[in-house]
Amino acid sequence: MKIKVISPGVLTTVQDTGRFGHQAAGIPEAGAMDRASLRLANALVGNPEDAAALELTVFGGTFEFDGKGTIALTGADMRPFLNGNRMSMNTAVPVKAGDRLELGVASRGMRAYLAVSGGIDVPVVLGSRSTDLKSRLGGLEGRKLRAGDVLENGSRPQAAAELAEVQGTPCEPVLQRLAKATSPEGVTQIRFLFGPQDAMFAEDAKKTFTDSIYTLSAACDRMGYRLEGAAVPSLNGTDILSEGICFGSIQVPANGQPIVMMADHQTTGGYAKIGTVLSEDLPLLAQLGPGKRIHFVPVTLEELGESL
Amino acid sequence: MPTDLQFFPAGDRAVLVQLGNAIDEAVNDRVRALYRAVLTAADPAIIEAVPAYTTVLVHYRPEVRSFAEMKTFLTDLASKSAAGGNAESGRRILVVPVCYGLHFGPDLWEMEEKLGLSRQEIIDIHSGRDYRIYMMGFLPGFVYLGGMDSRIAYPRLKKPRLRIDAGAVGIAGGQTGIYPSVSPGGWRIIGNTPIRLFDPAKDPAVPVSAGDAIRFRPISVDEWYEIKHLVQKGQYEPEVIL
Protein backbone atom coordinates (compact mmCIF):
# COMPACT_ATOMS: atom_id res chain seq x y z
CA MET A 1 0.00 0.00 0.00
CA LYS A 2 1.24 3.46 -0.86
CA ILE A 3 0.54 6.49 1.30
CA LYS A 4 0.42 9.65 -0.76
CA VAL A 5 0.96 13.02 0.90
CA ILE A 6 -1.67 15.40 -0.50
CA SER A 7 -0.96 18.11 2.07
CA PRO A 8 1.91 17.59 4.53
CA GLY A 9 0.70 19.61 7.53
CA VAL A 10 3.09 21.82 9.48
CA LEU A 11 5.78 19.34 10.45
CA THR A 12 5.23 15.71 9.51
CA THR A 13 8.16 13.31 9.85
CA VAL A 14 8.78 9.57 9.86
CA GLN A 15 9.69 8.47 13.40
CA ASP A 16 10.24 5.23 15.30
CA THR A 17 11.39 4.64 18.88
CA GLY A 18 14.76 6.30 18.20
CA ARG A 19 18.31 5.83 16.96
CA PHE A 20 20.43 4.19 19.65
CA GLY A 21 24.06 3.18 19.93
CA HIS A 22 25.56 6.17 18.14
CA GLN A 23 25.36 8.98 20.71
CA ALA A 24 29.04 8.36 21.58
CA ALA A 25 29.80 9.59 18.03
CA GLY A 26 27.58 12.66 18.45
CA ILE A 27 24.61 11.22 16.53
CA PRO A 28 21.33 12.14 18.29
CA GLU A 29 18.65 9.60 19.21
CA ALA A 30 15.79 11.49 17.50
CA GLY A 31 12.64 9.29 17.39
CA ALA A 32 9.02 10.00 18.30
CA MET A 33 8.49 12.76 20.87
CA ASP A 34 5.56 10.83 22.39
CA ARG A 35 6.72 7.22 22.29
CA ALA A 36 3.72 5.95 24.26
CA SER A 37 1.38 7.14 21.49
CA LEU A 38 3.70 5.69 18.83
CA ARG A 39 3.68 2.31 20.62
CA LEU A 40 -0.09 2.38 21.00
CA ALA A 41 -0.59 3.21 17.31
CA ASN A 42 1.72 0.37 16.32
CA ALA A 43 0.01 -2.08 18.68
CA LEU A 44 -3.41 -1.19 17.26
CA VAL A 45 -2.40 -2.03 13.68
CA GLY A 46 -0.40 -5.09 14.72
CA ASN A 47 3.08 -3.69 14.17
CA PRO A 48 6.09 -4.31 16.38
CA GLU A 49 6.31 -1.42 18.86
CA ASP A 50 9.40 0.03 17.19
CA ALA A 51 7.90 0.22 13.69
CA ALA A 52 8.05 3.62 12.02
CA ALA A 53 4.96 5.84 11.84
CA LEU A 54 4.23 9.43 10.92
CA GLU A 55 4.51 12.08 13.60
CA LEU A 56 2.12 14.95 12.77
CA THR A 57 2.66 18.25 14.55
CA VAL A 58 -0.13 20.73 15.43
CA PHE A 59 -1.81 20.51 12.00
CA GLY A 60 -2.01 17.11 10.39
CA GLY A 61 -2.55 17.49 6.64
CA THR A 62 -4.16 15.13 4.13
CA PHE A 63 -3.14 11.63 3.03
CA GLU A 64 -4.45 9.18 0.44
CA PHE A 65 -4.07 5.39 0.42
CA ASP A 66 -3.86 3.29 -2.74
CA GLY A 67 -4.55 -0.18 -1.34
CA LYS A 68 -5.94 -2.26 1.51
CA GLY A 69 -4.49 -1.92 4.98
CA THR A 70 -5.14 -0.88 8.54
CA ILE A 71 -4.36 2.51 10.05
CA ALA A 72 -4.57 3.98 13.55
CA LEU A 73 -4.29 7.50 14.89
CA THR A 74 -3.14 8.22 18.43
CA GLY A 75 -1.92 11.24 20.39
CA ALA A 76 -3.26 14.72 19.74
CA ASP A 77 -6.83 15.11 18.50
CA MET A 78 -6.63 16.70 15.04
CA ARG A 79 -10.30 16.01 14.17
CA PRO A 80 -9.56 13.31 11.60
CA PHE A 81 -11.99 12.62 8.76
CA LEU A 82 -11.80 9.49 6.58
CA ASN A 83 -13.62 10.03 3.27
CA GLY A 84 -15.54 12.86 4.88
CA ASN A 85 -16.64 10.85 7.94
CA ARG A 86 -15.29 11.49 11.41
CA MET A 87 -12.65 8.84 12.18
CA SER A 88 -12.16 7.50 15.71
CA MET A 89 -8.85 7.98 17.46
CA ASN A 90 -7.07 5.13 19.27
CA THR A 91 -8.66 2.39 17.24
CA ALA A 92 -7.69 0.30 14.22
CA VAL A 93 -9.48 1.41 11.05
CA PRO A 94 -9.40 -0.48 7.73
CA VAL A 95 -8.63 1.49 4.59
CA LYS A 96 -8.88 0.65 0.89
CA ALA A 97 -7.64 2.13 -2.35
CA GLY A 98 -8.71 5.74 -2.83
CA ASP A 99 -9.46 6.42 0.82
CA ARG A 100 -8.54 9.90 1.96
CA LEU A 101 -7.61 10.91 5.51
CA GLU A 102 -7.94 14.60 6.35
CA LEU A 103 -6.71 16.11 9.60
CA GLY A 104 -7.13 19.59 11.02
CA VAL A 105 -5.55 21.62 13.77
CA ALA A 106 -5.02 19.84 17.09
CA SER A 107 -7.74 20.77 19.55
CA ARG A 108 -5.94 18.94 22.37
CA GLY A 109 -2.31 17.86 22.39
CA MET A 110 0.49 18.76 19.96
CA ARG A 111 1.46 15.58 18.13
CA ALA A 112 -0.54 12.81 16.51
CA TYR A 113 0.82 9.47 15.31
CA LEU A 114 -0.43 7.79 12.16
CA ALA A 115 0.57 4.12 12.05
CA VAL A 116 -0.09 1.93 9.02
CA SER A 117 -0.06 -1.86 9.05
CA GLY A 118 3.44 -3.02 8.17
CA GLY A 119 4.98 0.27 9.29
CA ILE A 120 6.31 3.11 7.15
CA ASP A 121 9.04 1.54 5.03
CA VAL A 122 11.91 3.97 4.58
CA PRO A 123 15.57 2.88 4.61
CA VAL A 124 17.07 2.05 8.01
CA VAL A 125 19.92 4.49 8.69
CA LEU A 126 22.24 3.63 11.59
CA GLY A 127 19.68 1.25 13.06
CA SER A 128 16.61 3.47 12.85
CA ARG A 129 14.05 4.92 10.43
CA SER A 130 13.66 8.08 12.53
CA THR A 131 14.07 11.45 10.82
CA ASP A 132 16.84 13.57 12.33
CA LEU A 133 16.09 16.97 10.81
CA LYS A 134 19.27 18.66 12.04
CA SER A 135 21.66 15.99 10.76
CA ARG A 136 19.40 15.34 7.73
CA LEU A 137 19.38 11.61 8.48
CA GLY A 138 16.79 8.85 8.25
CA GLY A 139 13.11 9.18 7.43
CA LEU A 140 12.38 10.37 3.90
CA GLU A 141 15.66 11.97 2.75
CA GLY A 142 16.21 13.29 6.28
CA ARG A 143 13.52 15.94 5.90
CA LYS A 144 9.92 16.71 6.78
CA LEU A 145 7.27 15.47 4.34
CA ARG A 146 6.13 17.58 1.39
CA ALA A 147 3.03 17.49 -0.80
CA GLY A 148 3.48 14.83 -3.48
CA ASP A 149 5.68 12.53 -1.38
CA VAL A 150 4.74 8.87 -1.63
CA LEU A 151 5.54 6.42 1.18
CA GLU A 152 5.23 2.65 1.18
CA ASN A 153 4.24 0.38 4.04
CA GLY A 154 6.23 -2.69 5.05
CA SER A 155 5.29 -6.38 5.09
CA ARG A 156 2.20 -7.85 6.77
CA PRO A 157 1.87 -7.31 10.51
CA GLN A 158 0.87 -9.72 13.26
CA ALA A 159 -2.53 -9.69 14.94
CA ALA A 160 -3.62 -6.27 16.14
CA ALA A 161 -4.09 -5.48 19.83
CA GLU A 162 -7.38 -4.31 21.24
CA LEU A 163 -7.44 -0.95 22.99
CA ALA A 164 -8.92 -2.76 26.03
CA GLU A 165 -5.60 -4.50 26.54
CA VAL A 166 -3.78 -1.23 27.00
CA GLN A 167 -6.21 0.71 29.22
CA GLY A 168 -4.68 1.79 32.52
CA THR A 169 -1.14 1.07 31.33
CA PRO A 170 1.44 3.54 30.05
CA CYS A 171 -0.18 2.76 26.68
CA GLU A 172 -3.42 4.35 27.84
CA PRO A 173 -4.29 7.08 25.29
CA VAL A 174 -2.08 10.04 26.14
CA LEU A 175 -4.91 12.61 26.20
CA GLN A 176 -6.61 10.59 28.99
CA ARG A 177 -3.35 10.56 30.95
CA LEU A 178 -2.85 14.27 30.24
CA ALA A 179 -6.34 15.08 31.56
CA LYS A 180 -5.62 13.17 34.78
CA ALA A 181 -2.28 14.96 35.26
CA THR A 182 -3.74 18.44 34.62
CA SER A 183 -5.49 20.55 37.28
CA PRO A 184 -8.75 22.46 36.61
CA GLU A 185 -6.53 25.57 36.37
CA GLY A 186 -4.67 23.97 33.49
CA VAL A 187 -1.39 23.14 35.21
CA THR A 188 0.08 19.74 34.26
CA GLN A 189 2.11 17.81 36.79
CA ILE A 190 5.36 16.50 35.33
CA ARG A 191 7.31 14.11 37.55
CA PHE A 192 11.10 14.23 37.64
CA LEU A 193 14.10 12.86 39.50
CA PHE A 194 16.72 15.23 40.94
CA GLY A 195 20.20 14.90 39.43
CA PRO A 196 22.79 14.50 38.09
CA GLN A 197 23.89 18.04 39.19
CA ASP A 198 21.26 19.00 41.79
CA ALA A 199 24.13 19.53 44.26
CA MET A 200 24.98 22.70 42.29
CA PHE A 201 21.76 24.25 43.59
CA ALA A 202 20.96 25.32 47.16
CA GLU A 203 17.95 23.83 48.97
CA ASP A 204 15.93 27.04 48.56
CA ALA A 205 16.71 27.08 44.82
CA LYS A 206 15.44 23.51 44.51
CA LYS A 207 12.35 24.55 46.44
CA THR A 208 11.83 27.44 44.01
CA PHE A 209 12.02 24.93 41.16
CA THR A 210 9.50 22.50 42.67
CA ASP A 211 7.14 25.20 44.05
CA SER A 212 6.86 27.27 40.87
CA ILE A 213 4.67 27.01 37.82
CA TYR A 214 6.62 27.15 34.54
CA THR A 215 5.16 28.24 31.22
CA LEU A 216 6.30 26.68 27.95
CA SER A 217 7.77 29.51 25.85
CA ALA A 218 7.43 29.96 22.10
CA ALA A 219 10.85 28.29 21.80
CA CYS A 220 9.64 24.70 22.16
CA ASP A 221 10.52 22.25 19.43
CA ARG A 222 11.76 18.71 18.89
CA MET A 223 15.19 19.67 20.26
CA GLY A 224 14.12 21.21 23.52
CA TYR A 225 11.52 23.14 25.51
CA ARG A 226 12.56 26.51 26.91
CA LEU A 227 10.53 27.34 30.02
CA GLU A 228 9.64 30.67 31.60
CA GLY A 229 9.05 31.21 35.28
CA ALA A 230 10.88 31.73 38.58
CA ALA A 231 14.63 31.74 37.95
CA VAL A 232 16.52 28.89 39.61
CA PRO A 233 19.76 30.35 41.03
CA SER A 234 22.85 28.17 41.16
CA LEU A 235 25.52 28.21 43.85
CA ASN A 236 28.56 28.86 41.62
CA GLY A 237 27.39 29.15 38.02
CA THR A 238 25.90 26.40 35.89
CA ASP A 239 28.71 25.62 33.45
CA ILE A 240 30.06 22.10 33.71
CA LEU A 241 32.43 20.05 31.57
CA SER A 242 30.30 18.81 28.67
CA GLU A 243 28.81 15.37 29.24
CA GLY A 244 26.14 13.08 27.84
CA ILE A 245 22.53 14.24 28.21
CA CYS A 246 19.16 12.48 28.04
CA PHE A 247 15.75 13.01 26.47
CA GLY A 248 14.19 14.68 29.53
CA SER A 249 17.31 16.30 31.03
CA ILE A 250 16.40 19.62 32.69
CA GLN A 251 19.28 22.03 32.07
CA VAL A 252 19.59 25.30 33.94
CA PRO A 253 21.66 27.91 32.08
CA ALA A 254 23.03 31.09 33.69
CA ASN A 255 19.70 32.97 33.46
CA GLY A 256 18.06 30.33 35.68
CA GLN A 257 15.26 29.53 33.18
CA PRO A 258 15.10 25.75 32.74
CA ILE A 259 15.34 24.01 29.36
CA VAL A 260 14.05 20.44 28.95
CA MET A 261 15.92 18.40 26.34
CA MET A 262 13.57 16.60 23.96
CA ALA A 263 13.94 13.85 21.32
CA ASP A 264 16.29 15.71 18.93
CA HIS A 265 18.57 16.94 21.74
CA GLN A 266 22.30 17.21 21.11
CA THR A 267 24.16 14.24 22.54
CA THR A 268 26.21 16.32 24.99
CA GLY A 269 25.74 19.54 26.91
CA GLY A 270 27.66 21.85 29.22
CA TYR A 271 24.93 23.20 31.52
CA ALA A 272 24.16 21.78 34.96
CA LYS A 273 21.07 19.59 35.08
CA ILE A 274 18.93 20.02 38.16
CA GLY A 275 16.87 16.96 37.25
CA THR A 276 15.51 14.62 34.60
CA VAL A 277 11.87 14.16 33.61
CA LEU A 278 10.53 10.68 34.36
CA SER A 279 10.43 8.64 31.14
CA GLU A 280 6.73 7.86 31.70
CA ASP A 281 5.90 11.59 31.74
CA LEU A 282 7.82 12.56 28.58
CA PRO A 283 4.75 11.72 26.42
CA LEU A 284 2.70 14.21 28.48
CA LEU A 285 5.31 16.93 27.97
CA ALA A 286 5.51 16.10 24.25
CA GLN A 287 1.78 16.82 23.99
CA LEU A 288 2.11 20.28 25.54
CA GLY A 289 2.93 23.34 23.47
CA PRO A 290 3.80 27.02 23.94
CA GLY A 291 1.73 28.77 26.64
CA LYS A 292 0.93 25.58 28.56
CA ARG A 293 1.85 25.52 32.25
CA ILE A 294 3.61 22.77 34.14
CA HIS A 295 4.55 21.98 37.71
CA PHE A 296 7.61 19.80 38.32
CA VAL A 297 6.91 17.18 40.97
CA PRO A 298 9.95 15.43 42.48
CA VAL A 299 9.91 11.67 42.88
CA THR A 300 12.67 9.39 44.13
CA LEU A 301 13.97 6.06 42.91
CA GLU A 302 12.61 4.52 46.15
CA GLU A 303 9.15 5.82 45.31
CA LEU A 304 9.51 4.22 41.89
CA GLY A 305 10.01 0.91 43.65
CA GLU A 306 13.77 0.83 43.28
CA SER A 307 16.21 0.05 46.01
CA LEU A 308 19.27 2.26 46.24
CA MET B 1 41.05 -0.31 41.95
CA PRO B 2 39.01 2.86 41.46
CA THR B 3 37.50 4.02 44.71
CA ASP B 4 36.39 7.45 43.56
CA LEU B 5 33.59 6.51 41.17
CA GLN B 6 30.48 8.57 41.70
CA PHE B 7 27.02 7.59 40.45
CA PHE B 8 24.19 10.02 39.79
CA PRO B 9 20.73 9.15 38.49
CA ALA B 10 20.02 10.83 35.14
CA GLY B 11 16.34 10.03 35.23
CA ASP B 12 14.88 6.56 35.66
CA ARG B 13 16.66 5.06 32.64
CA ALA B 14 20.22 6.39 32.77
CA VAL B 15 23.08 6.67 35.25
CA LEU B 16 25.94 9.16 35.07
CA VAL B 17 29.27 7.69 36.17
CA GLN B 18 31.78 10.37 37.16
CA LEU B 19 35.47 9.41 37.20
CA GLY B 20 37.09 12.79 37.86
CA ASN B 21 36.51 16.54 37.88
CA ALA B 22 38.96 18.10 35.40
CA ILE B 23 40.21 17.69 31.84
CA ASP B 24 43.00 15.21 32.38
CA GLU B 25 44.47 12.45 30.21
CA ALA B 26 44.57 9.89 33.03
CA VAL B 27 40.90 10.51 33.91
CA ASN B 28 39.93 10.38 30.24
CA ASP B 29 41.85 7.09 29.89
CA ARG B 30 39.65 5.63 32.63
CA VAL B 31 36.56 7.03 30.93
CA ARG B 32 37.61 5.28 27.73
CA ALA B 33 38.42 2.04 29.58
CA LEU B 34 34.99 1.98 31.25
CA TYR B 35 33.22 2.91 28.02
CA ARG B 36 34.97 0.09 26.16
CA ALA B 37 34.24 -2.35 28.99
CA VAL B 38 30.54 -1.41 28.81
CA LEU B 39 30.51 -2.02 25.04
CA THR B 40 32.35 -5.33 25.41
CA ALA B 41 30.05 -6.53 28.20
CA ALA B 42 27.07 -6.34 25.78
CA ASP B 43 24.79 -6.64 28.82
CA PRO B 44 21.05 -6.92 28.11
CA ALA B 45 20.40 -4.10 30.59
CA ILE B 46 22.51 -1.63 28.66
CA ILE B 47 21.09 0.40 25.78
CA GLU B 48 24.15 2.53 25.08
CA ALA B 49 26.90 4.59 26.72
CA VAL B 50 28.17 8.11 26.04
CA PRO B 51 31.74 8.91 27.15
CA ALA B 52 32.83 12.53 27.79
CA TYR B 53 35.75 14.35 29.46
CA THR B 54 35.27 12.86 32.94
CA THR B 55 32.01 10.92 32.71
CA VAL B 56 30.25 7.99 31.07
CA LEU B 57 26.47 8.31 30.73
CA VAL B 58 24.99 4.81 30.65
CA HIS B 59 21.45 4.37 29.30
CA TYR B 60 19.92 1.21 30.77
CA ARG B 61 16.70 -0.77 31.09
CA PRO B 62 15.52 -0.56 34.72
CA GLU B 63 13.29 -3.57 34.06
CA VAL B 64 16.49 -5.66 33.65
CA ARG B 65 18.74 -4.07 36.30
CA SER B 66 17.80 -1.55 38.98
CA PHE B 67 19.86 1.59 39.66
CA ALA B 68 21.49 -0.18 42.62
CA GLU B 69 22.33 -3.20 40.48
CA MET B 70 23.75 -0.93 37.77
CA LYS B 71 26.03 0.73 40.34
CA THR B 72 27.43 -2.66 41.41
CA PHE B 73 27.73 -3.84 37.81
CA LEU B 74 29.53 -0.68 36.64
CA THR B 75 31.83 -0.52 39.69
CA ASP B 76 32.87 -4.07 38.89
CA LEU B 77 33.42 -3.25 35.20
CA ALA B 78 35.45 -0.14 36.09
CA SER B 79 37.75 -1.99 38.49
CA LYS B 80 38.30 -4.81 35.99
CA SER B 81 39.01 -2.39 33.13
CA ALA B 82 41.41 -0.35 35.32
CA ALA B 83 43.16 -3.49 36.61
CA GLY B 84 43.64 -4.61 33.02
CA GLY B 85 45.67 -1.43 32.46
CA ASN B 86 44.55 -1.49 28.85
CA ALA B 87 43.34 2.07 28.47
CA GLU B 88 45.94 2.55 25.74
CA SER B 89 45.17 -0.69 23.97
CA GLY B 90 43.15 -0.27 20.82
CA ARG B 91 43.90 3.46 20.81
CA ARG B 92 44.16 4.67 17.25
CA ILE B 93 45.53 7.76 15.55
CA LEU B 94 43.50 8.96 12.57
CA VAL B 95 45.59 10.89 10.06
CA VAL B 96 43.57 13.84 8.76
CA PRO B 97 44.99 15.39 5.57
CA VAL B 98 44.51 19.20 5.61
CA CYS B 99 45.04 21.83 2.96
CA TYR B 100 45.87 24.95 4.99
CA GLY B 101 45.19 28.53 3.89
CA LEU B 102 43.90 29.79 0.52
CA HIS B 103 40.12 29.60 0.25
CA PHE B 104 40.26 26.51 2.52
CA GLY B 105 41.46 28.62 5.46
CA PRO B 106 40.06 32.16 5.19
CA ASP B 107 41.18 33.16 8.70
CA LEU B 108 44.82 32.11 8.37
CA TRP B 109 46.11 35.44 7.01
CA GLU B 110 44.61 37.38 9.93
CA MET B 111 46.16 34.97 12.42
CA GLU B 112 49.58 35.31 10.76
CA GLU B 113 49.39 39.06 11.18
CA LYS B 114 48.01 39.12 14.74
CA LEU B 115 50.06 36.23 16.11
CA GLY B 116 53.29 37.41 14.45
CA LEU B 117 53.90 33.95 13.02
CA SER B 118 54.45 32.96 9.41
CA ARG B 119 51.92 30.80 7.60
CA GLN B 120 54.39 27.91 7.64
CA GLU B 121 55.03 28.33 11.38
CA ILE B 122 51.31 28.14 12.17
CA ILE B 123 50.96 25.05 9.96
CA ASP B 124 54.01 23.40 11.54
CA ILE B 125 52.76 24.07 15.06
CA HIS B 126 49.19 22.93 14.28
CA SER B 127 50.26 19.73 12.51
CA GLY B 128 53.22 19.06 14.80
CA ARG B 129 51.50 17.02 17.49
CA ASP B 130 48.75 14.46 18.01
CA TYR B 131 45.51 15.60 19.59
CA ARG B 132 43.53 13.42 21.97
CA ILE B 133 39.81 13.09 21.24
CA TYR B 134 38.38 13.75 24.70
CA MET B 135 34.79 13.35 23.57
CA MET B 136 32.38 13.72 20.67
CA GLY B 137 29.18 15.74 20.50
CA PHE B 138 27.57 18.95 19.19
CA LEU B 139 27.24 17.44 15.68
CA PRO B 140 27.60 13.85 14.41
CA GLY B 141 31.35 13.20 14.22
CA PHE B 142 32.40 16.45 15.93
CA VAL B 143 35.56 15.80 17.97
CA TYR B 144 36.53 17.74 21.09
CA LEU B 145 40.34 17.76 20.90
CA GLY B 146 42.78 18.57 23.68
CA GLY B 147 46.35 19.76 23.81
CA MET B 148 46.73 22.53 21.24
CA ASP B 149 49.91 24.66 21.45
CA SER B 150 48.97 27.99 23.09
CA ARG B 151 51.13 29.90 20.57
CA ILE B 152 48.37 29.46 17.96
CA ALA B 153 45.40 30.05 20.32
CA TYR B 154 43.07 32.63 18.78
CA PRO B 155 39.63 33.96 19.82
CA ARG B 156 36.42 32.99 18.01
CA LEU B 157 34.76 35.30 15.51
CA LYS B 158 32.56 37.87 17.29
CA LYS B 159 29.84 37.21 14.73
CA PRO B 160 29.62 33.53 13.74
CA ARG B 161 29.53 32.65 10.04
CA LEU B 162 26.19 31.36 8.77
CA ARG B 163 27.86 28.59 6.80
CA ILE B 164 31.05 26.68 7.39
CA ASP B 165 32.00 23.95 4.93
CA ALA B 166 32.14 20.28 5.89
CA GLY B 167 35.76 19.39 6.65
CA ALA B 168 36.72 22.88 7.84
CA VAL B 169 39.55 22.79 10.39
CA GLY B 170 39.28 25.56 12.95
CA ILE B 171 40.61 27.14 16.11
CA ALA B 172 38.49 28.57 18.94
CA GLY B 173 40.57 29.97 21.78
CA GLY B 174 42.88 27.17 22.89
CA GLN B 175 40.88 24.47 21.09
CA THR B 176 41.11 23.03 17.62
CA GLY B 177 38.53 20.93 15.78
CA ILE B 178 36.95 19.83 12.51
CA TYR B 179 33.44 20.62 11.23
CA PRO B 180 32.11 17.20 10.11
CA SER B 181 29.19 18.69 8.19
CA VAL B 182 28.02 22.07 6.93
CA SER B 183 27.09 24.21 9.93
CA PRO B 184 26.97 27.78 11.18
CA GLY B 185 29.89 28.49 13.49
CA GLY B 186 32.31 30.98 15.00
CA TRP B 187 35.58 29.06 14.86
CA ARG B 188 38.55 30.57 12.96
CA ILE B 189 38.98 28.44 9.86
CA ILE B 190 42.59 27.67 8.90
CA GLY B 191 42.19 24.75 6.49
CA ASN B 192 39.98 21.98 5.17
CA THR B 193 40.15 18.20 5.03
CA PRO B 194 38.64 16.33 2.09
CA ILE B 195 37.93 13.25 4.24
CA ARG B 196 34.57 12.63 5.88
CA LEU B 197 34.41 12.49 9.66
CA PHE B 198 30.77 11.44 9.41
CA ASP B 199 29.32 9.14 6.77
CA PRO B 200 25.89 7.71 7.66
CA ALA B 201 26.21 5.10 4.90
CA LYS B 202 29.14 3.50 6.75
CA ASP B 203 29.19 1.49 9.95
CA PRO B 204 30.69 2.90 12.05
CA ALA B 205 29.52 6.23 10.64
CA VAL B 206 32.38 7.97 12.44
CA PRO B 207 35.90 6.47 12.02
CA VAL B 208 37.16 7.37 15.53
CA SER B 209 35.89 7.33 19.08
CA ALA B 210 36.62 9.16 22.32
CA GLY B 211 40.14 8.37 23.53
CA ASP B 212 41.55 8.02 20.01
CA ALA B 213 43.77 10.74 18.55
CA ILE B 214 43.91 12.96 15.46
CA ARG B 215 47.08 13.83 13.54
CA PHE B 216 46.85 16.62 10.95
CA ARG B 217 48.96 16.11 7.80
CA PRO B 218 49.48 19.19 5.59
CA ILE B 219 48.63 18.54 1.92
CA SER B 220 48.72 20.54 -1.30
CA VAL B 221 45.67 21.81 -3.18
CA ASP B 222 46.24 19.11 -5.79
CA GLU B 223 46.30 16.39 -3.17
CA TRP B 224 43.12 17.84 -1.59
CA TYR B 225 41.30 17.41 -4.91
CA GLU B 226 42.77 13.93 -5.50
CA ILE B 227 41.61 12.71 -2.07
CA LYS B 228 38.22 14.43 -2.43
CA HIS B 229 37.71 12.62 -5.72
CA LEU B 230 38.48 9.24 -4.10
CA VAL B 231 36.22 10.05 -1.12
CA GLN B 232 33.33 10.86 -3.45
CA LYS B 233 33.83 7.57 -5.30
CA GLY B 234 33.93 5.75 -1.96
CA GLN B 235 37.48 4.60 -2.67
CA TYR B 236 39.38 6.50 0.02
CA GLU B 237 40.55 4.54 3.05
CA PRO B 238 41.49 6.89 5.89
CA GLU B 239 44.98 6.32 7.27
CA VAL B 240 44.79 4.92 10.79
CA ILE B 241 47.88 4.29 12.93
CA LEU B 242 47.39 1.66 15.60
Describe it.
The complex is a heterodimer of chains A (308) and B (242). With 308 residues, chain A is mainly beta. Chain A has two domains: 2-172, no CATH class; 182-298, Beta Barrel (Cyclophilin). Chain A is built from four helices and 20 strands. Chain A has helices at 35-44, 174-181, 203-211, 282-286, and strands at 2-7, 11-15, 53-57, 59-65, 69-77, 81-82, 85-86, 93-95, 100-105, 108-116, 150-152, 187-194, 213-220, 224-228, 239-244, 249-251, 259-261, 268-271, 273-277, 293-298. The model of chain A has no long low-confidence stretch (mean pLDDT 93). With 242 residues, chain B is α+β, with helices and mostly antiparallel strands. Chain B has two domains: 6-83, Gyrase A, domain 2 (2-Layer Sandwich); 93-241, Cyclophilin (Beta Barrel), CATH 2.40.100.10. Chain B contains five helices and 14 strands. In chain B, strands 5, 6, 7, 9, 10, 12, 13 and 14 form an eight-stranded mixed beta sheet that branches. In chain B, strand 9 and strand 10 form a beta hairpin. In chain B, helix 1 packs across helix 2. The longest helix of chain B has 17 residues, at 25-41. Chain B is elongated and about 55 Å long.
Number of domains of chain A: 2
Mean pLDDT of chain B: 92
Number of strands of chain B: 14
What structural class do the secondary elements of chain B suggest? alpha+beta
The number of distinct helices of chain B, counting runs of at least 4 residues, comes to 5
The neighbouring-strand order within the major sheet of chain A is 12-19-16-17-14-13-20
Structural class of chain A: mainly beta
Name the largest protein-protein interface in this structure: A-B, 42 and 47 residues
Query: Mind describing the biggest β-sheet of chain A?
Result: 7 strands, mixed, barrel
Counting DSSP H or I runs of 4 or more residues, the number of helices of chain A is 4
CATH-defined fold name of the largest domain in chain B: Cyclophilin
- Low-pLDDT sequence parts of chain B: none
Oligomerization status of the protein chains:
heterodimer
- Please give the radius of gyration of chain B in angstroms: 20 Å
The H-and-E topology of chain B, N to C, reads as EEHEEHEHHEEEEEEEEHE
State the helical fraction of chain A. 10-25%
CATH H level of the largest domain in chain B: which superfamily? Cyclophilin-like
